[in-house]
Specification:
alpha/beta, binds S-adenosylmethionine, seven-stranded mixed beta sheet, globular, 312 residues, 13 helices
């Protein structure tokens, strides 16, 4: 399938690139390449000595990126999960030399729009939902074997779904008479279980989000990715993270605050540095999209940018 090179409209583009405080000859990482919107903007700020390492766990994103950035030798695009970023950086001898790292979390518009990927409840397609199609279990296989309690827990925890019990029951019951293999089929089961209760929100939104987060282990790899990213930053290097829902943002906020806080010791004791701590500071307040961006990019609605800087 062919698609426009930049079918994904980058979110908080100006703000995130400004937050990275780019030095033209520096080494930067875009850990969530997608269709390369942010990568392109980083490259625009680099001179011929600057380098950009781009990662994506989606093999299709990597293939598209290598084609659309062909001939651009300041960028290297690597297929991997950002939880592995420290290893990729170590292999390139760049530990403590990375001047900026960007994480633009979640799925891209091309992933959502391609029915064959199984992310969208608005299109009929195979219930897959894996960002890395070469690894892990497609959602339909998990739904075929999951027990009621685990399903309920996933819907509640990762979708903050109030009707988790009703939806889980409906899925397990439907499973007795049919294999659930299609996104539209799952959406239909959910709509029948909870016809309409949240204004302006499709009844399947939260369940699809929950299953996607679970299948891709998104929150676990986010924690690993944040730690790995900070561990390779240069002094004055920055980590900029764009999150799209409260579960992600909570993890980013707590992580950054903990990294920026002084070690808490009983009064009277000398202040010591935490073992393995990388001293950091928070840069500015969290940023959200401007009204102008929201007019042209509804995906930016829930986006939040947080920035951390290594200080020593
Ligand atoms: C929101 S999109 C990024 C869009 C990109 N900034 C752009 O302007 O085109 C997120 C991308 O990150 C990838 N991704 C999500 N989680 C990842 C992870 N843990 N490791 C590597 N890539 C990940 C997804 O496959 C998707 O392509």
């Amino acid at each position: 399938m062919t698609e426009p090179a930049f079918a994904h409209q980058p979110v908080l583009l100006k703000e995130s690139i400004a937050a990275l405080n780019i030095r033209p000859g520096g080494f930067y990482i875009d850990t969530t390449f997608g269709r390369g919107g942010h990568s392109r903007a980083i490259l625009d700020q680099l001179n011929e000595h600057g380098r950009l390492l781009a990662l994506d766990q989606d093999p299709h994103a990597v293939d598209c990126g290598r084609k659309s950035f062909e001939g651009e030798n300041r960028i290297e695009i690597v297929h991997c999960n950002f939880s592995q970023v420290a290893n990729v950086v170590a292999e390139r001898g760049m530990v403590n030399r990375v001047e900026g790292i960007l994480m633009d979390l979640g799925v891209s518009s091309p992933q959502l729009d391609d029915a064959a990927r199984g992310f969208s409840f608005l299109r009929s397609g195979p219930l897959d939902m894996r960002m890395n199609t070469g690894q892990g279990e497609p959602a339909m296989h998990w739904l075929a074997r999951v027990g009621l309690n685990e399903l309920m827990l996933v819907l509640k925890k990762y979708g903050e779904e109030k009707s988790a019990r009703r939806i889980a029951h409906a899925i397990i019951e439907a499973r007795n008479s049919q294999d659930i293999t299609d996104t539209a089929q799952l959406a239909d089961i959910i709509v029948r279980a909870v016809p309409h209760y949240e204004k302006h929100k499709h009844p399947a939104t939260r369940s699809f989000q929950a299953i996607r987060i679970f299948i891709n282990r998104e929150l676990q790899v986010l924690e690993q990715g944040l730690q790995a990213a900070v561990s390779v930053l240069a002094i004055n290097g920055r980590l900029a993270v764009i999150s799209f829902h409260s579960l992600e943002d909570r993890i980013v906020k707590r992580f950054m605050r903990a990294m920026a806080s002084e070690p808490r010791l009983p009064a009277g004791l000398p202040v010591m540095s935490r073992p393995e701590a990388v001293p950091c500071r928070l840069v500015g307040k969290p940023r959200v999209a401007t009204a102008a961006e929201l007019m042209t990019n509804p995906r930016a609605r829930s986006a939040r940018l947080r920035v951390l800087e290594r200080v020593q």
